[in-house]
Recover the amino acids of this structure.
């Protein structure tokens, strides 16, 4: 930090304002997977079986991220509401934790698990 003439608050040096942050794709994927698990946690309460952990892939085409989340869902259930909850939670968590806007979250239902299935 370089002190200003006349003695006021220090200003950041030129070196302190350079650079950029690159977040690895696997970081986005881990955040999205955790958010999807959290969004679906209450849907599995009281069931003998639960679905496998979500599978996630991401694409970062620039300043935004696109996320694909594969999930197994309980059946019967409001599948649209569960998918919407996953989309909203994933987008919010990625933005909150990385500062990166999510342009799209695609939720793919890979399997339905019937009540009482083991």
């Amino acid at each position: 930090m370089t002190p200003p003439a006349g003695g006021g608050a220090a200003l950041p040096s030129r070196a302190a304002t350079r650079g950029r942050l690159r977040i690895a794709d696997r970081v986005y994927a881990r955040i999205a997977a955790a958010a999807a698990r959290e969004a679906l946690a209450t849907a599995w309460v009281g069931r003998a079986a639960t679905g496998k952990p979500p599978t996630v892939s991401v694409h970062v085409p620039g300043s935004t991220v696109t996320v694909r989340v594969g999930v197994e869902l309980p059946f019967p259930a409001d599948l649209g509401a569960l998918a919407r909850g996953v989309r909203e939670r994933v987008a919010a968590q990625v933005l909150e934790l990385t500062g990166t806007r999510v342009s799209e979250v695609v939720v793919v239902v890979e399997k339905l698990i019937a009540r009482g299935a083991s």
